[in-house]
């Protein structure tokens, strides 16, 4: 069949879609149908970009509605991907250019005749109606027509960057990537933004990168940071260093780090950070912080199958005063307190903190291990099944907490899929986890390396890294 498809080639700009299905041998009814044609063995031109959704493993559909939805989405995405090829995109661009020029030739002579040779806008109307209401309606219609003609003229001239900033011609999509530093010579392990700069952990040490400026070394390569968070509002830098039994959680004051950079002090090494270690975090392989830290910062540290909950009380008034920064110690370790330990059945691979609606004994921890996502109550340590992954092999990517009107939701990312689950208010100490109309899911063309979030007002735009 594939050899037959490889011989089909048209001299016209057409889009062909082929789907090969079969019924398993011995089946007497159409209760099970298999589909072949994953992206690796389906027939398509090299110029067609990747499109999903990918076939499940194994590629067997037992539900007719799911199979119908899969086929429709696959065909729609394939048609959209085909339109992005040079064969179609160049012809579309040429047709659009001809259409704009045709509109320009039809409308611009009338524009010059009706408006540019007149003194006032009231003289634009060729026949002024006698009724006041009809006259106002005619003025508004003529105003819109003249505005569209002027906009068209500006577009044809190529001077429409400012005027068309909100149109699809010039507007960038929210997920469009932006280059911060080209030809970076080191391998990036992790990073976080610090003001207008970027604090990056590399194989050569920790570097502070600013656009158009040479990078500044903050720590040397003896300090290998695997995970970090820059909390400017709390004047904190939290980092997980090394690996295995030597792994620790370090906390720094951003003001002290900034002072060392400005005074060009000696670059700090691993051995200069002994006072910044949280001692009970030895051997940790993962940590997470709450993204909505108001009056209390919460940190959960995973040490094999044990979770360590740490909090820090802070006063915004003290943080904003320079005198308090000078009087406080350089290491903020003493400001952290250990709350409790929680034991899990397996070491977590992905972990995130979920804020409860009241913040009083209803905060949760979302953990991923084996083939499932669980919610763990911070106060009692009880766990609840949130989502089970129906797959032989699971590649956990991320669990992102999202909040709307005080209610929490989780975007569970694994393999090619991102599944959104709503976590409802708690009832008697346990969350209400049940299917909802708010739940949805979407798929990527490739398995992402990491997924983060870009917070606007609404909606949520996922940001991924392959």
TrEMBL record:
Superkingdom of this protein's organism: Eukaryota
CNH domain sequence ranges: 185-466
InterPro entries named in the record: CNH_dom, Rap/Ran-GAP_sf, Rap1_Ran_GAP
Pfam families cross-referenced by the UniProt entry: CNH
Example GO BP: regulation of small GTPase mediated signal transduction
Coiled-coil stretches noted in the UniProt entry, renumbered to this chain: none
Example GO molecular function: GTPase activator activity
PANTHER family for this protein: GTPASE-ACTIVATING RAP_RAN-GAP DOMAIN-LIKE PROTEIN 3, RAP GTPASE-ACTIVATING PROTEIN
Name of the protein described by the UniProt record: GTPase activating Rap/RanGAP domain like 3
Natural source organism: Accipiter nisus (Eurasian sparrowhawk)
